[in-house]
Please model this.
Amino acid sequence: MRLKSTLTTLTAGLALAALTSVSAFAADVTLTISSWAPPTHGINAMLWPEMIKQIEAATDGRVTAEIKYGLASPPAQYDLILDGAADITWVFHGYTPGRFVATKLIELPGYEGSAEAASVAYWRAHEKYFADLGEHKGVKLAGLMTHGIGVMHSAKKISSLDEIGGMKLRIGGGVAGDAGAALGASGIRVPAPKVYETLASNAADGVFMPMEGKASFKLFEVAQHTYRVPGGFYRGSFAIIMNEDKFSSLSDADQAALNKVFGENLSRVGGSVWDAIDVKGRSALDGTADNSLTEASADDVAKWNAMAKPIIASVLAEATAKGIDAAGAHAFITEEMKSY
Model:
Protein backbone atom coordinates (compact mmCIF):
# COMPACT_ATOMS: atom_id res chain seq x y z
CA MET A 1 0.00 0.00 0.00
CA ARG A 2 2.93 2.36 0.76
CA LEU A 3 4.38 1.87 -2.73
CA LYS A 4 1.03 2.47 -4.42
CA SER A 5 0.43 5.65 -2.46
CA THR A 6 3.95 6.95 -3.08
CA LEU A 7 3.67 6.38 -6.82
CA THR A 8 0.26 8.03 -6.88
CA THR A 9 1.62 11.07 -5.05
CA LEU A 10 4.56 11.30 -7.43
CA THR A 11 2.38 11.02 -10.50
CA ALA A 12 -0.03 13.70 -9.32
CA GLY A 13 2.51 16.03 -7.78
CA LEU A 14 5.18 15.88 -10.47
CA ALA A 15 3.11 16.19 -13.63
CA LEU A 16 3.63 19.95 -13.68
CA ALA A 17 6.95 20.07 -11.86
CA ALA A 18 8.58 17.69 -14.35
CA LEU A 19 8.09 20.25 -17.11
CA THR A 20 10.62 22.65 -15.64
CA SER A 21 13.49 22.87 -13.19
CA VAL A 22 13.15 26.63 -12.77
CA SER A 23 12.09 27.77 -9.34
CA ALA A 24 9.03 29.92 -8.86
CA PHE A 25 10.81 31.56 -5.91
CA ALA A 26 13.33 34.39 -5.96
CA ALA A 27 15.79 32.22 -4.05
CA ASP A 28 18.92 33.43 -2.23
CA VAL A 29 20.85 30.29 -3.26
CA THR A 30 20.54 28.27 -6.46
CA LEU A 31 22.27 24.89 -6.32
CA THR A 32 23.64 23.36 -9.51
CA ILE A 33 22.57 19.77 -10.15
CA SER A 34 24.87 17.94 -12.56
CA SER A 35 22.96 15.15 -14.23
CA TRP A 36 23.32 12.58 -16.96
CA ALA A 37 21.03 10.17 -18.81
CA PRO A 38 18.43 11.70 -21.14
CA PRO A 39 16.45 14.69 -19.79
CA THR A 40 13.33 12.53 -20.10
CA HIS A 41 14.76 9.85 -17.79
CA GLY A 42 12.84 9.52 -14.54
CA ILE A 43 15.69 10.81 -12.38
CA ASN A 44 15.81 14.03 -14.40
CA ALA A 45 12.09 14.39 -15.11
CA MET A 46 10.75 13.21 -11.75
CA LEU A 47 13.30 12.94 -8.93
CA TRP A 48 15.03 16.30 -9.33
CA PRO A 49 11.81 18.33 -9.68
CA GLU A 50 10.42 16.66 -6.55
CA MET A 51 13.64 17.26 -4.62
CA ILE A 52 13.72 20.90 -5.73
CA LYS A 53 10.10 21.35 -4.71
CA GLN A 54 10.83 19.89 -1.27
CA ILE A 55 13.97 22.02 -0.81
CA GLU A 56 12.07 25.19 -1.70
CA ALA A 57 9.24 24.31 0.68
CA ALA A 58 11.60 23.37 3.52
CA THR A 59 13.63 26.60 3.19
CA ASP A 60 10.68 28.91 2.52
CA GLY A 61 12.08 29.57 -0.94
CA ARG A 62 15.55 30.64 0.17
CA VAL A 63 17.21 27.68 -1.59
CA THR A 64 16.41 26.18 -4.96
CA ALA A 65 18.31 24.22 -7.63
CA GLU A 66 18.63 23.87 -11.40
CA ILE A 67 19.68 20.94 -13.56
CA LYS A 68 22.62 21.15 -15.95
CA TYR A 69 23.72 18.47 -18.40
CA GLY A 70 27.02 17.60 -20.00
CA LEU A 71 29.27 18.80 -17.17
CA ALA A 72 31.05 15.43 -16.93
CA SER A 73 30.71 11.80 -17.95
CA PRO A 74 28.75 9.50 -15.62
CA PRO A 75 31.90 7.94 -14.07
CA ALA A 76 33.37 11.42 -13.40
CA GLN A 77 30.37 12.81 -11.48
CA TYR A 78 31.75 12.03 -8.01
CA ASP A 79 34.98 13.94 -8.64
CA LEU A 80 32.98 16.79 -10.18
CA ILE A 81 31.24 17.27 -6.83
CA LEU A 82 34.49 16.87 -4.88
CA ASP A 83 36.02 19.65 -6.99
CA GLY A 84 33.01 21.93 -6.48
CA ALA A 85 32.26 22.24 -10.20
CA ALA A 86 28.64 21.36 -9.35
CA ASP A 87 26.73 21.08 -6.09
CA ILE A 88 24.62 17.92 -6.38
CA THR A 89 24.63 14.84 -8.60
CA TRP A 90 23.76 11.14 -8.72
CA VAL A 91 26.44 8.49 -9.10
CA PHE A 92 26.33 4.83 -10.03
CA HIS A 93 28.78 3.05 -7.74
CA GLY A 94 29.61 0.35 -10.27
CA TYR A 95 31.21 2.88 -12.64
CA THR A 96 34.25 3.17 -10.35
CA PRO A 97 35.44 -0.39 -9.55
CA GLY A 98 37.31 -0.74 -6.27
CA ARG A 99 36.16 2.59 -4.88
CA PHE A 100 33.10 1.18 -3.10
CA VAL A 101 32.57 -2.13 -1.29
CA ALA A 102 29.67 -1.71 1.16
CA THR A 103 27.45 -0.52 -1.69
CA LYS A 104 27.69 -3.96 -3.32
CA LEU A 105 25.63 -5.47 -0.50
CA ILE A 106 22.44 -3.89 -1.85
CA GLU A 107 23.27 -5.10 -5.37
CA LEU A 108 23.12 -8.79 -4.47
CA PRO A 109 20.59 -11.01 -6.24
CA GLY A 110 17.72 -12.55 -4.35
CA TYR A 111 16.20 -9.63 -2.49
CA GLU A 112 12.43 -9.59 -2.89
CA GLY A 113 10.66 -6.24 -3.07
CA SER A 114 10.31 -2.96 -4.89
CA ALA A 115 13.03 -0.41 -5.58
CA GLU A 116 11.38 1.83 -2.99
CA ALA A 117 11.61 -0.88 -0.35
CA ALA A 118 15.21 -1.60 -1.34
CA SER A 119 16.21 2.07 -1.27
CA VAL A 120 14.76 2.66 2.20
CA ALA A 121 16.39 -0.55 3.48
CA TYR A 122 19.64 0.58 1.88
CA TRP A 123 19.63 3.92 3.70
CA ARG A 124 18.82 2.25 7.00
CA ALA A 125 21.57 -0.34 6.47
CA HIS A 126 24.01 2.44 5.65
CA GLU A 127 23.25 4.22 8.91
CA LYS A 128 23.47 1.00 10.92
CA TYR A 129 26.36 -0.80 9.21
CA PHE A 130 28.17 1.22 6.51
CA ALA A 131 28.55 4.85 7.58
CA ASP A 132 31.74 4.34 9.63
CA LEU A 133 33.51 2.92 6.58
CA GLY A 134 33.51 6.41 5.07
CA GLU A 135 33.15 5.33 1.46
CA HIS A 136 31.54 8.65 0.55
CA LYS A 137 34.28 10.65 2.20
CA GLY A 138 34.60 14.22 1.00
CA VAL A 139 30.97 14.70 0.01
CA LYS A 140 27.66 14.98 1.83
CA LEU A 141 25.60 11.86 1.28
CA ALA A 142 22.07 13.05 0.51
CA GLY A 143 20.43 9.75 -0.42
CA LEU A 144 20.91 6.16 -1.52
CA MET A 145 18.77 4.25 -3.99
CA THR A 146 18.60 1.21 -6.21
CA HIS A 147 16.89 0.62 -9.50
CA GLY A 148 14.47 -2.26 -9.96
CA ILE A 149 15.68 -5.81 -10.40
CA GLY A 150 18.30 -6.26 -13.11
CA VAL A 151 17.13 -8.27 -16.11
CA MET A 152 18.70 -9.12 -19.47
CA HIS A 153 17.58 -7.43 -22.69
CA SER A 154 18.85 -8.83 -25.99
CA ALA A 155 18.24 -8.68 -29.73
CA LYS A 156 17.99 -12.48 -29.81
CA LYS A 157 15.29 -14.20 -27.81
CA ILE A 158 16.74 -16.19 -24.92
CA SER A 159 14.65 -19.07 -23.62
CA SER A 160 17.02 -20.62 -21.09
CA LEU A 161 19.91 -19.66 -18.84
CA ASP A 162 22.33 -21.85 -20.80
CA GLU A 163 21.94 -19.67 -23.90
CA ILE A 164 23.52 -16.67 -22.16
CA GLY A 165 26.96 -18.29 -22.06
CA GLY A 166 29.22 -16.80 -24.73
CA MET A 167 27.11 -13.68 -25.26
CA LYS A 168 28.65 -10.20 -25.24
CA LEU A 169 26.68 -8.17 -22.68
CA ARG A 170 26.91 -4.53 -21.71
CA ILE A 171 27.35 -4.65 -17.95
CA GLY A 172 27.46 -1.53 -15.81
CA GLY A 173 29.78 -2.86 -13.11
CA GLY A 174 29.54 -4.04 -9.53
CA VAL A 175 27.62 -7.24 -8.82
CA ALA A 176 26.19 -7.15 -12.35
CA GLY A 177 29.69 -7.99 -13.57
CA ASP A 178 29.88 -10.95 -11.18
CA ALA A 179 26.51 -12.18 -12.44
CA GLY A 180 27.58 -11.90 -16.07
CA ALA A 181 30.78 -13.82 -15.38
CA ALA A 182 28.88 -16.58 -13.56
CA LEU A 183 26.62 -16.94 -16.60
CA GLY A 184 29.60 -17.23 -18.93
CA ALA A 185 29.01 -13.92 -20.72
CA SER A 186 31.70 -11.49 -21.84
CA GLY A 187 31.25 -8.10 -20.22
CA ILE A 188 31.45 -4.79 -22.07
CA ARG A 189 31.47 -1.72 -19.82
CA VAL A 190 29.95 1.46 -21.19
CA PRO A 191 27.88 4.07 -19.33
CA ALA A 192 24.11 3.85 -19.69
CA PRO A 193 23.82 6.74 -22.19
CA LYS A 194 26.03 4.74 -24.61
CA VAL A 195 23.96 1.55 -24.43
CA TYR A 196 21.71 2.22 -27.42
CA GLU A 197 24.57 2.82 -29.84
CA THR A 198 26.52 -0.13 -28.40
CA LEU A 199 23.62 -2.45 -29.18
CA ALA A 200 22.69 -0.80 -32.48
CA SER A 201 26.25 -1.27 -33.74
CA ASN A 202 26.25 -4.95 -32.65
CA ALA A 203 29.19 -4.31 -30.34
CA ALA A 204 27.13 -6.17 -27.72
CA ASP A 205 24.47 -8.88 -27.98
CA GLY A 206 22.50 -7.63 -25.01
CA VAL A 207 22.52 -5.61 -21.84
CA PHE A 208 21.96 -6.01 -18.12
CA MET A 209 19.55 -3.25 -17.08
CA PRO A 210 16.27 -2.92 -15.17
CA MET A 211 12.98 -2.93 -17.06
CA GLU A 212 12.99 0.88 -17.20
CA GLY A 213 15.68 0.73 -19.89
CA LYS A 214 13.09 -0.43 -22.39
CA ALA A 215 11.64 3.09 -22.39
CA SER A 216 14.38 5.34 -20.93
CA PHE A 217 17.08 4.14 -23.35
CA LYS A 218 14.77 2.92 -26.15
CA LEU A 219 15.84 -0.69 -25.77
CA PHE A 220 12.53 -1.73 -27.31
CA GLU A 221 14.18 -0.82 -30.63
CA VAL A 222 17.54 -2.61 -30.29
CA ALA A 223 17.06 -5.24 -27.55
CA GLN A 224 13.56 -6.50 -28.17
CA HIS A 225 13.64 -9.55 -25.90
CA THR A 226 13.85 -9.66 -22.11
CA TYR A 227 14.77 -12.57 -19.84
CA ARG A 228 14.03 -12.35 -16.12
CA VAL A 229 14.73 -14.39 -12.99
CA PRO A 230 12.87 -13.83 -9.69
CA GLY A 231 14.68 -11.23 -7.58
CA GLY A 232 16.78 -10.24 -10.59
CA PHE A 233 20.37 -10.95 -11.56
CA TYR A 234 21.41 -7.92 -9.48
CA ARG A 235 20.29 -4.43 -8.41
CA GLY A 236 22.09 -1.21 -9.29
CA SER A 237 23.41 0.98 -6.47
CA PHE A 238 23.28 4.79 -6.67
CA ALA A 239 24.08 7.69 -4.35
CA ILE A 240 22.85 11.27 -4.40
CA ILE A 241 25.72 13.44 -3.19
CA MET A 242 26.34 17.12 -2.44
CA ASN A 243 29.48 19.21 -2.21
CA GLU A 244 30.35 19.53 1.49
CA ASP A 245 31.59 23.11 1.29
CA LYS A 246 28.43 24.23 -0.48
CA PHE A 247 26.29 22.57 2.18
CA SER A 248 28.36 24.16 4.96
CA SER A 249 28.01 27.58 3.35
CA LEU A 250 24.25 27.51 3.93
CA SER A 251 22.73 28.97 7.08
CA ASP A 252 22.14 26.65 10.04
CA ALA A 253 18.41 26.86 9.39
CA ASP A 254 18.78 25.88 5.74
CA GLN A 255 21.20 23.06 6.55
CA ALA A 256 18.64 21.68 9.00
CA ALA A 257 15.92 22.06 6.36
CA LEU A 258 17.93 20.19 3.73
CA ASN A 259 18.71 17.41 6.20
CA LYS A 260 14.96 16.82 6.50
CA VAL A 261 14.68 16.52 2.72
CA PHE A 262 17.76 14.29 2.43
CA GLY A 263 18.41 10.89 3.97
CA GLU A 264 15.69 8.28 4.16
CA ASN A 265 13.12 10.67 2.70
CA LEU A 266 15.07 11.33 -0.52
CA SER A 267 16.05 7.65 -0.73
CA ARG A 268 12.38 6.68 -0.62
CA VAL A 269 11.50 9.19 -3.33
CA GLY A 270 14.35 7.93 -5.49
CA GLY A 271 13.29 4.31 -5.16
CA SER A 272 9.68 5.14 -5.96
CA VAL A 273 10.81 6.91 -9.14
CA TRP A 274 12.69 3.79 -10.24
CA ASP A 275 9.53 1.76 -9.63
CA ALA A 276 7.46 4.20 -11.68
CA ILE A 277 9.82 4.10 -14.65
CA ASP A 278 10.00 0.30 -14.49
CA VAL A 279 6.26 0.41 -15.12
CA LYS A 280 6.87 2.65 -18.14
CA GLY A 281 9.50 0.23 -19.40
CA ARG A 282 7.11 -2.70 -19.11
CA SER A 283 4.49 -0.69 -21.01
CA ALA A 284 7.01 -0.06 -23.81
CA LEU A 285 7.70 -3.80 -23.98
CA ASP A 286 4.02 -4.76 -23.96
CA GLY A 287 3.15 -2.10 -26.50
CA THR A 288 5.74 -3.11 -29.10
CA ALA A 289 4.79 -6.03 -31.31
CA ASP A 290 8.24 -7.59 -31.72
CA ASN A 291 9.17 -7.37 -28.02
CA SER A 292 8.85 -10.29 -25.62
CA LEU A 293 9.35 -11.17 -21.95
CA THR A 294 10.55 -14.63 -20.92
CA GLU A 295 10.29 -15.70 -17.29
CA ALA A 296 12.91 -18.20 -16.16
CA SER A 297 11.68 -21.78 -15.86
CA ALA A 298 11.69 -23.56 -12.51
CA ASP A 299 14.84 -25.43 -13.56
CA ASP A 300 16.57 -22.19 -14.53
CA VAL A 301 15.53 -20.51 -11.28
CA ALA A 302 17.12 -23.36 -9.32
CA LYS A 303 20.22 -23.19 -11.49
CA TRP A 304 20.53 -19.42 -11.06
CA ASN A 305 20.05 -19.63 -7.29
CA ALA A 306 22.96 -22.08 -7.17
CA MET A 307 25.09 -19.71 -9.29
CA ALA A 308 24.17 -16.77 -7.06
CA LYS A 309 25.40 -18.38 -3.83
CA PRO A 310 29.13 -17.92 -4.60
CA ILE A 311 28.47 -14.34 -5.75
CA ILE A 312 26.77 -13.54 -2.45
CA ALA A 313 29.48 -15.31 -0.44
CA SER A 314 32.24 -13.41 -2.27
CA VAL A 315 30.67 -10.00 -1.66
CA LEU A 316 30.00 -10.82 2.00
CA ALA A 317 33.65 -11.87 2.40
CA GLU A 318 34.88 -8.70 0.68
CA ALA A 319 32.74 -6.50 2.92
CA THR A 320 33.69 -8.43 6.06
CA ALA A 321 37.37 -7.85 5.24
CA LYS A 322 36.61 -4.11 5.38
CA GLY A 323 35.31 -4.50 8.94
CA ILE A 324 31.60 -4.57 8.12
CA ASP A 325 29.18 -7.03 9.70
CA ALA A 326 28.28 -8.11 6.19
CA ALA A 327 26.16 -11.11 7.17
CA GLY A 328 24.22 -8.93 9.60
CA ALA A 329 23.72 -6.22 6.98
CA HIS A 330 22.56 -8.74 4.39
CA ALA A 331 20.01 -10.21 6.80
CA PHE A 332 18.94 -6.71 7.88
CA ILE A 333 18.25 -5.58 4.29
CA THR A 334 16.33 -8.78 3.58
CA GLU A 335 14.09 -8.30 6.62
CA GLU A 336 13.61 -4.56 6.09
CA MET A 337 12.45 -5.15 2.54
CA LYS A 338 10.21 -8.01 3.57
CA SER A 339 8.44 -5.94 6.19
CA TYR A 340 8.27 -2.68 4.21
